[in-house]
Amino acid sequence: MDDRAALRDVTDEEIATFWRDGVVCLRAIMPPAWLEVLAEGVERYLASDAAFSLSAFGAERPETGKRKPKAHFYGGTDHWKVDEACRRFACESPLPAIAGQLLRASRINLYEDSILVKEPGAIEKTAFHQDLSYFHVEGSQICTTWVPLDPVKRETGALQFVRGSHLSRKLFRPNFFVSTDAMPDTEGEIVPDLHADRRDAEILCFDTEPGDITIHHARTLHGADGNHSATMRRRAMSVRYCGDDARYKLRRGAPRKPHHEEVAEGAVLDHADCPVVWMA
Ligand SMILES: O=C(O)CCC(=O)C(=O)O
């Protein structure tokens, strides 16, 4: 599978929606054959010893001590570096071009990928956060594509986005993803717990089918409920991309990868660990 064509073009209206709301849901755009490639990588990860349960960071889970507990939230990062199916999906699928069009970019760098699987009964909420708080990068052309492999709705963990929140210059502290606790030694205000109190936030949430994807801006506040279904899985991968104006910015306290020790503040992302994956 090396056809980079999406099922359809991204429309001007969808691009305008992304920049207005900080998120857009692109219906029926990802070819089924590419979803099969992604599913292969996701299942290989879940079956491996590397599969990591994020549930341990959240609520008390009696089965956390077990090696592969069911009903957990599994997640990991940078699978494209170790798994050929994940590499092909992040680098060679229609996704980089879709990100390029939405970001109005002339080139796209891969920032990272994350496998995010809420198995049936994985009750952990994804705490509200902004992706940019975790990224060692600055710029306006930075996004996360979220690609579900199963039908997803709010009750099974569809992402919830605070409409227009990317327009604020405020960058909240990163948290531990399944808990609202801020990471130590980070800067900024603590994110409000919008699961507990919506305040005046307008939340956008999309029921999706495989083939649909959501794309949100790196400044957009978002979170998700747990997966409350007893049978429906919620397998997804986020792939994060940067456009022309992205530059390295090392953020205090945010988790670093080895290559972040080698990059210069303010430099373009031309590093083997952030490869260019699309040019207009
Ligand atoms: O899949 C989830 O529950 C969270 C995804 C997310 O927040 C992200 O990829 O930025």
Structure description:
- The protein has one domain: Jelly Rolls (Sandwich), CATH 2.60.120.620.
- It is built from 4 helices and 13 strands.
- The chain has helices spanning 12-21, 32-47, 84-92, 95-102, and strands spanning 23-26, 73-77, 107-118, 126-129, 137-138, 142-148, 159-162, 203-205, 213-217, 222-224, 234-242, 247-248, 276-279.
- Strands 1, 2, 3, 6, 9, 11 and 13 form a 7-stranded antiparallel sheet that branches. Strands 4-10-7-8 form a 4-stranded antiparallel sheet, with no helix packed on it. Strands 5-12 form a two-stranded antiparallel sheet.
- The protein is α+β, with helices and mostly antiparallel strands and 280 residues long.
- Helix 2 packs antiparallel against helix 3.
- The two termini are 21 Å apart.
Strand content: 15-25%
**CATH topology, anyone?**
Jelly Rolls
Low-pLDDT stretches: none
* Molecules bound to protein: 2-oxoglutaric acid
Shape: globular
Total strand segments? 13
> Quick one: CATH superfamily?
q2cbj1_9rhob like domain
What string gives the helices and strands in order? HEHEHHEEEEEEEEEEE
Helix fraction by DSSP (H/I, runs of at least 4):
10-25%
Distance between the termini: 21 Å
The average pLDDT is 93
